[in-house]
Task: structure prediction
Amino acid sequence: MWNAGEGPARTARTREAAQAYGAAAARTENEAERDFLRRRREALGGPP
Result:
């Protein structure tokens, strides 16, 4: 459980992390790394 008001901040951080994983996946040429980053993004609730 989190403190009052922390929920929206946590949601925003999770969204930012998902976007960062997506951006990293777009930059890498290593297919295994790209797949890993895409799975992390999806686990955080980002778009497939």
Observations:
- The two ends are 28 Å apart (CA to CA).
- The CA atoms of residues 39 and 48 lie 8 Å apart.
- Residues 6-43 form one domain.
- Residues 6-27 form the longest helix (22 residues).
